[in-house]
Amino acid sequence: MTSDAACRARGFDPAKLAMIRPALEAFVDCGELAGVVTLTSRWGDIVQGEAIGWSDIEAKVPMRSDTLFRIASMTKPITSAAAMMLVEEGKIALSDPIARWVPELGRVRVLRDAAGPLDNTVPARRAITVEDLLTHRAGIAYAPFSEGPLKQAYEGALGDPGMNRLSVDAWLAALGTLPLAYQPGARFHYGHSTDVLGFLIGRVEGKPFRQVLQERIFAPLGMSDTDFWLPHAKRGRLASLYGYDEKADGLTKVELEMYDEPPAYTPGGGGLISSAADYHRFARMLLGGGALDGVRLLRPETVRLMRTNRLTDAQRQTPFVGMPLWRKSGFGLGLSIAEDLIDNPYACGAQGAITWPGVFGTWWQADPVNDLIMIYLIQHRVPVSANSGSTIATGRGAAGRRALPVYQDGIYGALQSVAGLVDQKPAA
Question: Does the predicted model carry a pTM greater than 0.90?
Answer without folding.
Answer: yes
